[in-house]
Design goal:
This protein is an alpha/beta fold. It is 43% helix and 15% strand.
Length: 315
C-alpha cells in the first residue's frame, strides 16, 4: 500500500520509526532487526574502525533485504576511511551528525545516497538544508550521547525547525513511546528517531550490565556533562561524578580530555564497567523497564501511537 508519509517514501520503509545510530549499541544485529520489523535500522559507525564497519554492513545485508543506514559522527579523525567503506559497499542511506553537513553531503549526493543530518538548533537545520540533505533529525536536549549546547528541549525544537525548513523533519530526544511519537507528529515531525529504547533491545550490542543499569535507572539519573568539550548526556556514576567535580573546579579542555582518556565509552557501554565507564543514554531511560526484542519495541510504539491517535480524534 502506498504511503503518504514523506519519510516512509524517502527510505522505502513501512513505519516512520528510525533506530538511532548509537556507539557500542547499534551493530548489524540491531539494525537488521529494526529494518526487518518495518522501521529503518542504523549501524552506528562512531564506535567502529573502517574494516569493522565493513563487516557489519556485510552481515546486515545478509540479514535483511530491507533498507538500512549508517550513522557517521563527523567529529571522528578517521571519517574519510569510514566514508570510503560506505561508498565501496554501496550503502544507500547515511545519517551524519556532530559536524558540518556541507563537508560530505555533496560527495554522497553525487553517488545518489540519501543523506540525513542530525541537528540541535535551527541555524544548523538551515545549513543542512542548504547543503542538500534529504531530511533532518531534530534532536532535543533530552537525548542521550552528544547533545546541543543550546539545551533546547524537543517540545520547543521540533516546531521551530519544522517552521524553518522545507524538508522532512525526524524528531529525536525523549522518543520511546507511541505517546511521544504522537506528540512529535502534532509538532510537525514526519517520523521519530529512537535511541534509548533500542539500546536495551535484545539485539543491541550494549553490555548486559549497561542494559540493566538503564532499566533500573530513575528520574534524574542522567545529566549533561563535558560542555567544554562536546556536551554529552550520561547516566550518573563514579566517572560522571569525577567529571562534575573537575568542571566545578574549573578544569580546562585539556584536563577534561585527560580525564576522559581513551575508550571510556567502550569501557562502560560495551565492556560493562558501570563505575569507570562513560554511560551515554537519554532522560527517557527512566521510563524503560524491560529488555525486549527490537521488533516488539517497534510494534508496541506503533500500536500505542495508533491507539493515541484514535483517542485524540474521538475528542
Amino acid at each position: 500500500m502506498e504511503t503518504k508519509n514523506p519519510i516512509c517514501k524517502l527510505f522505502g520503509i513501512q513505519y516512520p520509526i528510525i533506530q538511532a545510530g548509537m556507539v557500542w549499541c547499534s551493530g548489524w544485529r540491531l539494525a537488521a532487526a529494526v529494518s526487518n520489523a518495518g522501521g529503518l535500522g542504523i549501524i552506528g559507525a562512531g564506535s567502529m574502525y573502517p574494516e569493522v564497519l565493513r563487516a557489519h554492513i556485510t552481515k546486515c545485508k545478509a540479514s535483511t533485504n530491507r533498507p538500512f543506514a549508517v550513522n557517521v559522527p563527523l567529529l571522528y579523525p578517521n571519517v574519510e576511511e569510514i566514508f570510503a567503506v560506505i561508498l565501496e559497499e554501496n550503502v544507500g542511506i547515511v545519517f551524519s551528525s556532530a559536524g558540518n553537513p556541507t563537508t560530505w553531503t555533496p560527495t554522497l549526493k553525487a553517488k545518489e545516497i540519501i543523506v540525513v543530518h542530525v541537528v540541535a538548533n535551527t541555524k544548523f537545520a538551515l545549513k543542512a538544508q542548504e547543503a542538500g540533505v534529504d531530511a533532518i533529525v531534530a534532536e532535543g536536549f533530552e537525548a542521550g550521547g552528544h547533545n546541543g549546547r543550546e539545551e533546547t528541549t524537543t517540545l520547543c525544537l521540533i516546531p521551530m525547525i519544522c517552521d524553518a525548513v522545507k524538508i522532512p523533519v525526524i524528531a529525536a530526544g525523549g522518543m520511546a513511546s507511541g505517546r511521544a511519537m504522537l506528540a512529535a507528529f502534532a509538532l510537525g515531525a514526519s517520523a521519530v528517531q529512537i535511541g534509548s529504547a533500542f539500546a536495551v533491545a535484545k539485539e543491541s550490542s550494549a553490555h548486559a550490565n549497561f542494559k540493566e543499569k538503564i532499566i533500573s535507572s530513575a528520574e534524574g539519573d542522567t545529566k549533561l556533562a563535558m560542555k567544554k568539550l562536546v556536551p554529552v548526556r550520561l547516566l550518573k556514576n563514579e566517572f560522571s561524578d569525577a567529571v562534575a567535580q573537575a568542571e566545578a573546579e574549573g578544569a580546562d579542555r585539556k584536563s577534561l580530555m585527560e580525564l576522559l582518556g581513551r575508550a571510556r565509552a567502550k569501557l562502560g557501554m560495551f565492556e560493562g564497567d558501570m563505575d569507570n565507564g562513560e554511560l551515554e543514554i537519554g532522560q527517557v531511560s527512566a521510563m524503560l523497564n524491560e529488555n525486549k526484542p527490537a521488533a516488539k519495541i517497534l510494534e508496541d510504539i506503533w500500536q500505542e501511537f495508533r491507539t493515541g491517535l484514535k483517542a485524540l480524534t474521538a475528542l
